[in-house]
Design a protein that fits this description.
Blueprint lengths: L2 H45 L4 H25 L9 H41 L17
Length: 143
């Protein structure tokens, strides 16, 4: 096979790799964002002491930030460094890239959970009821 045919074949396989990566990574990011938005609301409402308006606002801002960071990462991570050859190479490149995207999504999720658990703990500490004064008074002469 001459060099020109090989180059055209590689370009096509690289383009297929890019397309499969984007067609997998972007919908996966959107699904994770929707799931976190829907199921995280209850957690945020509790973190913000039943202030639903604040919780909904923070929830929306988190989704926007999540999209910006993850879609930005997906775009930056698009380039394939090594030459993609044959169907096997396509699957290997796409699976490696999707694996990294999934790890980043998971890490961001656990970081957010950590931050909001800290916020919640601080808020719960502030709601502690102070101890009541003792109602029983010992008679010093009885001791």
């Amino acid at each position: 096979m001459n060099n020109n045919n090989r180059k055209n074949r590689t370009v096509n396989e690289t383009v297929i790799t890019y397309a499969l990566y984007l067609l997998t990574a972007v919908p996966m990011t959107m699904w994770v964002a929707r799931t976190l938005h829907k199921n995280g609301r209850v957690f945020l409402v509790e973190c913000f002491h039943e202030n639903e308006e604040l919780a909904d606002s923070v929830n929306h801002l988190l989704v926007v930030g999540f999209y910006l960071i993850n879609i930005g990462f997906v775009a930056l991570y698009l380039k394939v460094v090594e030459e993609v050859v044959a169907v096997r190479g396509i699957f290997e490149a796409v699976s490696a890239k999707i694996g990294v995207v999934m790890l980043v999504l998971g890490a961001m999720h656990f970081f957010n959970i950590y931050v909001f658990m800290r916020i919640r703990r601080k808020g719960v500490r502030g709601l502690d009821v102070p101890p009541l004064p003792p109602t029983y008074k010992a008679n010093p002469e009885a001791l």
